[in-house]
Amino acid sequence: MKPIRHCLFLAVMLFALPLQAQEFEPIEKRMSAEAFKAAGLDKLSAAELANLNTWLSHNALGEAALEAAREQGRQEVVRKNRGFFDFGSSEPIVSRLQGEFRGFARNREYTLENGQVWQQTDDATLYGVRAQNPEVRIRPGALGAWWLRVGNNAVQAKVKRIK
After folding, report:
1. Phi and psi for 111 in degrees, rounded to 5?
2. In the prediction, which pLDDT does 22 show?
3. How far apart are CA 120 and CA 52, in angstroms?
4. Which contiguous run of DSSP H or E holds residue 27?
5. Is the pTM of this model over 0.70?
């Protein structure tokens, strides 16, 4: 490659990196006439300029899709690991218990429909309450604590996620 081609390639790369829009705008419209000429792009033939714009558009759309996939992956990790780590969400986890609920007791495990398993860590009790697959809400509390409430009962138990 000639030195001018190296400079041209570097100039094009500098302009292509921040490009992440879904609709592609040709490079000659995104640059001022002075910047276009200073980068040496005015020396390109119409075919070369078209090839450059094609390459830039494919690269830009690929980068946008890659970033969207990364964000989707991040959100999935947050959703799957809620309760193990503090991701800053104050939204409660709402699900149903699998099987029969027979009240609270220290070290009792509670399996949710979404596959999460929580273990009670305090001495909270709830006598005389039995329910089949009741709705539960697990909300984050202070200092990494999580609180489990079954149905509309006022009593809640402190829990930790074990699976």
Report:
1. -100, 130
2. 53
3. 61
4. helix 27-30
5. no
